[in-house]
């Protein structure tokens, strides 16, 4: 489970970065670019650091995915748009659940 969460965080981080870049290109949204880079790099770094220190790395990844998920939950409730809000919300929650389960397996 820990290996799955590490890989999920790395892929998730790359997708969040790509989403931020797409938001900037399509809507000229500097906020999308900055937040995509910040949280994407955070998720990538968490996934990579989880190889060396699983507890802190997975905890940081859980925090990043929950933060992005909460943001897109509010966005989805406001717009009801599946793209990008609904898809990003679903992806964030999937990564959060995987990371939570991996953290739980560490404690067991």
Could you give a quick summary of the protein structure above?
The chain is an all-alpha fold.
Supply Rg: 14 Å
Structural class: mainly alpha
Number of helices: 4
Q: Tally of extended strands?
A: 0
**How would a crystallographer describe the biggest sheet?**
none
Which outline best applies? globular
Identify the notable features of this structure and list them briefly:
mainly alpha, 0% strand
Could you describe the 3D structure shown?
The chain is mostly helical. The protein contains 4 helices and no strands. Helix 1 (2-27) runs antiparallel to helix 2 (30-52) and helix 2 runs antiparallel to helix 3 (54-79). The model has no long low-confidence stretch (mean pLDDT 96).
Q: What are the SSEs and their pairings?
A:
Layout (H helix, E strand, L loop, with lengths): L1 H26 L2 H23 L1 H26 L2 H26 L1
